[in-house]
Structure formats: C-alpha cells, structure tokens
TrEMBL record:
NCBIfam families given in the database record: agcS
A cellular-component GO term for this protein: plasma membrane
UniProt-recorded name of the protein: Amino acid carrier protein
Pfam families to which the protein is assigned, alphabetical: Na_Ala_symp
Record-annotated membrane-spanning stretches: 240-261, 293-315, 321-338, 380-400, 420-439, 451-471, 491-508, 541-561, 584-607, 628-646, 652-671
Naturally occurring in which organism (per UniProt): Brumimicrobium oceani
Membrane topology: Multi-pass membrane protein
Length: 691
C-alpha cells in the first residue's frame, strides 16, 4: 500500500513537472554589419510559452510574422512585444550605439528632422482610416527565394465568422509551417484567383502577365461595420491634413482668385513671351532670356519628383491621387506667378550687370515700404528664407540628386559592380557641375536651355510611345484616375486621404510657393516684372500637369497601378517603362535621371549661391566659398549613405514656403494692381510686340 502511494505521488509530481509550460521569455540580439548607416540586423530568440508567436515591432512596416529585421538605423530604439498563443506577452528592447562618423552624423541629425517634421507636418485635422474589408495576402509572398510557399490548410471555412488575430489558416514555406491570422472581427471569405477558389495546396503567389511574381489575394475579411485599417505591426493607419500642405494649397487658392485665374487667361500670352515676341532687342536689364529663365527653373523641378513622386502617390493613394496632383499643379500656377513677378520687381542689379533676386530681396525690400513694423518682419523672414535655402541647396538640391543618380545607374542589370565606384562618380559629377557653375547664371542657363528640352523630350517621347501602344485604353486610363479621385479604395484613406496625398506630392514636385523659382526668374532680361510672372505659370503646367500625368498613365497602362509588385518610387516607374519598352528603356530612363539630377544640381547651386551671398555679402570670395562647399557636397552625396541628413534638407526646402507665402500674401495687392496695369498697356500697344 505504501509503495502504491509512493508511486502515485511520483506519477503526479512527474506529470505536474512535465505538464508545466516554461515561462515565456525572449532575447534580442543586434549586429551592426559595417560603418555604413541603417544596416543593423535584429534577431529575436523566444523560449517557453505556447507557440506560435507574434512579434509586434515599433515600426509599422515590419510584420508580426518577422522574428528578425535587417536595416535598422543606428541610434534608434528597438522595442518588440512577443505574444504567444495564450496571449501572454513579453517585451524586449534594444539600442545600437552609432560608432562611425557617418553613423554619428546621421544620428545627430535625427532630433532636428523630428522637430521640423513636427512643425511642417503638424496635423490640422486627423482621423483613423477605417475600411469595410481587409484583403488577405501572405507575408513575404513576393520573396523570390521562397519557391515552395503554399497554403497548407484553411482552419476556418468560407463564410465563417472570425475574431481579430484568430488563426484562420496554416501557411507552409518549404519545411517551415506557421499560422495565418485574421485582421479584425468579421466574416472570412476565401479568395478567388483566375476564376478558381483558393484552396489548400495553392501557392500564395502567382506569375503575372509581365512574367513577374505577385502577391495572390488569398481572401478577405468582411467587416459588419467599418473597422480601423491595420499596418503590418497591428497599429492603426491615420490620416491628417499637414500644416505645410494646407499652407501651400490655401495660398495657391487665394492667389488664384486674387489674380483672376491668371493661370488660364495668361497661358497664351506666356507662350508668346517665351517665343520672344515681346522682347525689345535694344533694351531690358537682366542676364538671361525668358526661355532660359523658364528652363533653369524647370530644371530644378522636373526630375525625380516626376519619376518617383507620381509612383509614390499612386502606390500610396491609388490612381486617383494623380487627379489631385493635376489640380494642385493648376492652382499652383497662380503662386508661381505672384512670387516670380515679385522676384523681378525687387531684384538687385550690380554695376557689372550681375543680378540677384528672389524671396530674400522682395521680403526685405517689398515689406520695408509698408512701414517700420513690416521692415523688421521683412528682414527676419528674408534671413530665415536664405538660411533654409542654403541648407536645401546642399541637401535636396545636391546630395540627394547625385545619390539617386548613382543608385539608378547601379541598379541597371549588369552594372551591379558600379556600386563600388560612388566616390569616383561623385568626383566626375563635381567636375562637370563645377565647369558649369563657375560661369554663373549665364553659363547655367546656356546648359539648361539645351539639357531640359532634351531630357523632357526623351522622357515624354518614351511615355508617349507607351501611351500610343495603349491608345484604345486612353479613356479607361483617365476614367481610372477620375474614379479613383472621387470614389477611392477606403484603404487609401477615402476621398480626403487621396486628395491630401495628391496635393502633397504635387507641392513637392513643382515647388510652387516654395520660393526657389523666383531666384532664377529674377535674372530674366525684362523691364516688366509681370511678364516674367506670366512666363513662370508654364512651370507647374509642364512639370505637374503634363509630365506627371504621362507618368501616371504609363504606370496605369502597364498594370503597376493595380499591382506594384512591392516596388516604390523610381523603381516602380522604371519597371513600368521597361515592361512595355524592354530592358533597353532602363538605360534611357537612367540616362534621363542623370540629366535630371545634373540640371537640378546646377540650378540649385545658383539658388543656394544667391541665398548665401545675401547673408554673407555679394563678393567674389563669398561666392567662391559657397561653390567650393557645394562641389564638396556633390562628392559626399555620391559616396556615403545620407539618411537623416537628406531628410533634414528636404524639410528645409519645404520650410522655405512659410516665410515666402506669408510675404506673398501681404504683397498680393500690389501684384494684382501691377497685373491690371500690365494688360492695359499690352492692349493699348504701349508694350509693343516685336515679332
């Protein structure tokens, strides 16, 4: 009896010991692979608890299925919440100290970037994005290395009710199996692909008509009422109206009405001015022609904003974002008119004929006429603008351009080894840029008036060829854009979300209201400030209405609007062109990107130079110092990772809009009076037509 009791006790103790689950625990390890920025690898090792585990990262683009991540930035805190099948959780944290010079510079710029983002992108209004359904796609489905990736079995039947994060299927990647979770409470509907129901054993990916790998929609969860849209890390998507976008759009709308829709009634006169029909061959102060001023300003805006910006807008907001980009471009034409008119009116011309102009001058000189209070305000706004302009010229107008041009060339098939020659590419570009900018605005204009028509021609002809191939679908293409603008997919944030995104990308693309273009237009050979303002309205039209629309149609016609295949930015546009024209178009597009970057750099060197000399004095020594710094930054931009440095510079360019538009609003009355007087003199013949 005693032996039986002992054995029973041992059995119970053994059962209890083996029946207990080891407590959930996790360990986070990191590895900084090199001195380059943003290349930290993070791994999570989990023990105990009940499998399977979910990993909730503090970055919205990292999936709950990821137990590791490559590409974390040095100096950024890492936080991962590990959740097991019993919904027990443990939190692990990590941090990688920046060590190299580039890592420390990148990390040191992050507080400044965060501050500017907080100011510029402060939401005037915000709301959570809600959707009526969630489309189910397998994680890592477009990873080409996962060749045997299938649905092993559905755990929930078609039409069955499911709960948020409930297991609905088992996915099998080779020998590895893991659960697939529901997102939100609703009814599971199994997907249909090519007319056939998605069942166990089916691949989670498919080969599309272009021969590329795409994510298969495995099904959807229908919600009984709209629920928040989930990012990959289970956080909710929100949308808002950023302050900078509202400031730019509100200014453009105000100027449109204030100037009597000058962008429409002045377009024909603008073309006549560019053709030189009102140019007096015997007089006019300035250094360059109307056409040269136009292409110099265009060279700073037509470029990566068109190639990458439209692709970003479509991938984030669908084809409908293009409609709002076009509308923003049309109203932005009025902002260009006002700022470029003032740029010529308040320019400063030295005895040797060299011209300096732009917001620095019309903010200080124009506001000075309005009294002592405005005089001080004008000086402060001018200095703020000049500092922002110098910073923007060295980053977004320089390092970012050469960096993107180098990356574009490095991604050409067969050119992979080119990525090791960033320093030499930077030196070569610096020499070419230096040769041009040493000669000043006349030299810059003589180059841009050849490069801009060539690069726009190459890009537009390539786009027109693709559009021509799809001529019968032109109506469908525009219909897709219009439908997407007014009845967009809820996942894009609905009508408001797509509208905001379109306006935002257009503002970044054409820079209307930012204040950069008036610096170039101030050098135009004219005694009539209004005439140059009218010429300037062509910039947003060409940049946003024409070039961006063509880019959007190419992306739509090639199918990448419906299925981006995980591509973003310039890579998405490149893929769209090459899928229709063949791989040779990658060389053409890459060449165009290099031309875009080169022309943008030489134009922004002039913008930065004028802002620099406004602050430090209009002397040759001051100018040479800036040009030397600019060329050094060309080499740096091509040879190192940029990260937060470029983010900060881009924000400085956007920040230029605050002092600029404030000054434009104050001086809009005198511009309206000048415009009225100008057209009276044109109609009366006082302003003569010479051709």
């Amino acid at each position: 009896m005693r032996l039986a009791n002992i054995l029973a006790t041992l059995f119970l103790l053994t059962s209890f010991a083996f029946g207990q689950t080891e407590p959930l625990s996790a360990e986070l390890t990191t590895k900084d692979k090199s001195d380059a920025i943003d290349n930290v690898s993070v791994e999570i090792d989990v023990k105990g608890g009940k499998k399977p585990y979910k990993y909730v990262w503090n970055k919205e683009n990292i999936s709950i299925y990821n137990k590791g991540y490559n590409g974390w930035s040095e100096g950024d805190s890492i936080k991962v919440v590990v959740i097991d099948a019993n919904f027990d959780s443990v939190t692990v944290k990590g941090y990688v100290e920046p060590n190299s010079f580039s890592e420390n510079v990148n990390n040191g710029m992050k507080p400044a970037v965060a501050f500017l983002q907080k100011v510029l992108f402060a939401n005037i209004w915000s709301d959570t994005v809600k959707v009526k359904e969630f489309r189910l796609k397998a994680p890592f489905a477009i990873d080409a290395e996962r060749n045997n990736y299938t649905i092993k079995e559905w755990l929930k039947k078609d039409g069955e009710a499911v709960k948020h994060l409930e297991m609905i299927a088992i996915l099998k990647d080779g020998d590895h199996e893991f659960p697939f979770y529901a997102m939100g409470d609703g009814v599971l509907i199994h997907g249909v692909h090519d007319g056939v129901k998605v069942t166990a054993g089916d691949n989670v990916y498919f080969t599309n008509k272009k021969g590329n790998r795409s994510e298969k929609i495995l099904g959807r969860i229908d919600y009984p009422s709209p629920q928040p849209f989930y990012f990959k890390n289970l956080t909710n998507k929100s949308q808002g109206i950023p302050l900078i976008v509202l400031w730019l759009v509100a200014g453009a709308v105000f100027f449109t009405f204030k100037m009597g829709f000058i962008q429409f009634r002045g377009i024909r006169h603008a073309i006549d001015l560019v053709r030189g029909r009102f140019d007096d061959p015997n007089k006019s102060a300035g250094e360059v022609t109307h056409f040269q001023a136009l292409v110099t300003a265009l060279s700073a805006t037509v470029g990566l904003g068109n190639i990458a910006g439209v692709a970003i807008a479509i991938s984030m907001g669908g084809p409908g974002a293009t409609f709002w980009m076009i509308l923003a471009g049309l109203i932005g034409m009025a902002s260009k008119f006002v700022e470029c008119t003032l740029g010529v009116k308040y320019r400063h011309q030295k005895e040797d004929g060299e011209v300096s102009g732009g917001p620095m001058y019309y903010l200080s000189r124009g506001l000075e006429k309005r009294g002592p209070g405005f005089k001080q305000l004008g000086k402060v706004l001018a200095i703020i603008f000049a500092i922002l302009c110098v910073g923007g010229s060295l980053g977004g107008g320089n390092m970012f351009q050469v960096n993107q041009a180098f990356n574009q060339l490095s991604e050409i098939p067969g050119w992979e080894g080119f990525s090791a020659y960033g320093l030499y590419f930077g030196i070569g570009m610096a020499i070419l840029v230096g040769i041009v900018i040493v000669g000043g605005i006349k030299s810059i204009a003589s180059v841009t008036d050849k490069i801009v028509p060539a690069m726009v021609g190459i890009y537009v002809v390539s786009a027109l060829v693709i559009i021509g191939f799809n001529y019968e679908n032109l109506g469908h293409g525009f219909g897709t854009i219009i439908k997407g603008a007014f009845s967009p997919d809820a996942m894009y944030g609905g009508f408001i979300g797509v509208l905001i995104l379109g306006f935002q990308r257009a503002a970044f693309s054409n820079e209307a209201g930012v204040g950069s273009a008036p610096i170039a237009h101030a050098a135009a050979k004219t005694d009539e400030p209004v005439s140059e303002g009218i010429v300037a309205i062509l910039e947003p039209f060409i940049d946003t209405v024409v070039v961006c629309t063509m880019t959007a149609l190419v992306i739509i016609f090639t199918g990448y609007a419906q299925d981006p295949e995980g591509l973003e930015g310039a890579a998405l546009t490149s893929a769209a062109f090459s899928s229709s024209l063949g791989d040779w178009s990658l060389y053409v597009l890459s060449f165009a990107v290099v031309l875009f970057a080169f022309s943008t750099m030489i134009s922004w060197s002039y913008y930065g130079l004028k802002a620099w000399t406004y602050v430090f004095g209009e002397t040759k020594i001051s100018g040479l110092i800036y040009k030397f710094i600019f060329l050094i930054f060309v080499v740096v931009g091509a040879s190192v990772g940029l990260g937060a440095v470029i983010d900060f510079s881009d924000l400085m360019i956007l920040g230029m809009a605050f002092p600029n538009i404030l000054g434009l609003l104050i001086m809009s009355g005198e511009v309206k009076a000048d415009l009225k007087d100008y057209f009276v003199r044109v109609k009366s013949g006082v302003i003569k037509r010479f051709k």
